[in-house]
Amino acid sequence: MTIVVNNAGITGFTPFKEITDEAWDRMMAINLRGTFIVTQVCLPDMETAQWGRIINITSSGAQTGNALMAHYAASKGAMVSLTRSLAQELGPLGITVNNIPPGSIMNTRMSEENKQLFHVPEDVLLKTLPVRRLGQPEDIANACAWLASEASSYVTGQTIGYNGGRVIS
Predict the structure, then answer these.
(1) In whole angstroms, what is the distance from residue 138 CA to residue 127 CA?
(2) Which residues are catalytic?
(3) CATH value at residue 97
(4) Is residue 142 part of a domain?
């Protein structure tokens, strides 16, 4: 069984007009090209087994956009499109491909950077979330575990929003 969780990524808070070519390229190289490379490397084992799970960790910013994060949101949005395309291409081979766009997950580097940059009090942030709590890293791990299991074998090409209702589709 081959299960891939593409979770490596970087973020950045930069006004759009100040994003350099180098910063744009670095964001795309790590967030998007990294997903591309890891998936290609693992694909032969999945094809041989006629079974595989690919889970891409994207971002709720890919669904909503983010001020000061155009290059980040664009890279994660491209991962969503890659997920959908691969789901169609690889589904006949027994391989499912889905993505999880987290939102407001506490105790992560990105959540700490958000706090420092935007100074939004937690009680104000919580009022924007229907579930009235911040997510935990374990919430994302639980979603990955389900998508990696046989219980989700009929789910592919989907965006599984673990965001406390920040994005409702």
Answers:
(1) 22
(2) 72
(3) 3.40.50.720
(4) yes
